[in-house]
């Protein structure tokens, strides 16, 4: 008498499959923050667990944002990273919004004093999101490596994010040269 082994049911989704999209969204914000070395964009940690989000060492100073246009745009661009990544992944832009996100519209509204700039706020946000999408396309390898680290460990500190970004850049540099 022969016995036929009964195959175990295959898992159609990997355990980390549920974490893929959230990890990519968080990694996008962390990588863009890492690529813009400004004080309010200094990443302290990135977490995927119970309280997912990117924690920064400092909150953006409204007076500094009002006085420094480049800083204001970089902080808003990083704030748009999740929605830009969501669009790149074919999701709605609202999928990139979370409770721990810095709201770029609120940051820009608080920092802008000129009424003419406030009139074109929507256009400025659209341009900044397009720039964020372009940066994320260029930094896709870095985002994937940081996202993989988030799925594996659940949380990364600033040093670990920097290490993963440097590794991805080094691998890309080696392969392309």
UniProtKB/TrEMBL annotation:
<protein>
    <submittedName>
        <fullName>Uncharacterized protein</fullName>
    </submittedName>
</protein>
């Amino acid at each position: 008498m022969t016995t036929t082994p009964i195959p175990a049911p295959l898992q159609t989704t990997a355990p980390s499959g549920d974490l893929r999209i959230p990890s990519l969204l968080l990694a996008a914000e962390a990588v863009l923050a890492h690529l813009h070395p400004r004080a309010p964009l200094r990443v302290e940690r990135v977490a995927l667990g119970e309280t997912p989000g990117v924690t920064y060492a400092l909150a953006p100073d409204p007076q500094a944002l009002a006085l420094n246009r480049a800083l204001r745009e970089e902080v808003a661009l990083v704030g748009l990273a999740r929605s830009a990544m969501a669009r790149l992944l074919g999701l709605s832009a609202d999928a990139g919004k979370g409770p721990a996100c810095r709201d770029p519209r609120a940051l820009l509204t608080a920092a802008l004093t000129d009424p003419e700039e406030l009139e074109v706020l929507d256009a400025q946000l659209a341009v900044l999101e397009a720039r964020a999408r372009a940066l994320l396309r260029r930094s896709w390898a870095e985002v994937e490596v940081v996202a993989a680290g988030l799925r594996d460990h659940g949380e990364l500190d600033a040093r670990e994010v920097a290490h993963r970004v440097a590794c991805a850049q080094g691998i890309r540099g080696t392969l392309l040269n």
